[in-house]
Amino acid sequence: MPEALPSGHFLFASEATTEGHFDKVCDRIADAVLDTCLSQDAESRVLCEACAKSGMVMILGEVVSKASIQYEQVIREAVKAVGYDSDEKGLDWRTMNIIVAVEDQGPDIAASLGSQRPKLADDQAVAVGYATDETEEAMPLSHALATQMCAQMDRLRRDGVFTWLRPDTRVQVTVEYKTDSDGALLPQRVHSISVIYGILAEVKPAAAEKDFMEQVVKPVVPERFLDSPGPYIC
């Protein structure tokens, strides 16, 4: 049965991913294409998207630039930087299949963004959010902790401490909140932590979970938010 919470208490969860999550890998690849264009031609116009699956990366879009771009090299270097170096991890930067479907920018967009017109973005969006005094980052505690845990796991993997960890990890942190008499929302404790990660075959899940608790959770989560003996990790 679900855990019963005291009156005025509720649970709020946030999720974050490490740099090896394929969404972030695709963002890194698209950014690398843009950076390469701008490094050679500051007037470049780049509309580039990337998608990836096991063993394959594809980029597609429209580019207007005087830059000479070796797309395959740019893609492989971006994937290499994340640490995808074997098929066992899902991608090997040396052998993965690459599809490049990039063409010149359409004439309607090119005309609207001509050199005689002000520099405008052809895509615009409005983001809505809020700030909170729960953390120094002015973000909800659950979000801050999930993000910090992912950053810690990236560091430990890169530094060779977590040799068993694959690049793609997802962390969800659930925090119990209390609604104060004045309406303020006060974090009480970390209720649970859910982790989805890939490990190498020779590492036992129990050992990986112990490493995660000792080297990720305890260094990141303030002790006052940890129940004894600690949050439930699944």
TrEMBL record:
Protein name from the UniProt record: METM protein
Domain S-adenosylmethionine synthetase central: 121-227
Alphabetic keyword roster: Metal-binding
Entry's Gene Ontology BP terms: S-adenosylmethionine biosynthetic process
Chain's gene name: METM
SUPFAM superfamilies: S-adenosylmethionine synthetase
Domain S-adenosylmethionine synthetase N-terminal: 10-106
Superkingdom as given in the UniProt entry: Eukaryota
Cited InterPro entries: S-AdoMet_synt_central, S-AdoMet_synt_N, S-AdoMet_synthetase, S-AdoMet_synthetase_sfam
Native species: Symbiodinium natans
Single annotated GO MF: metal ion binding
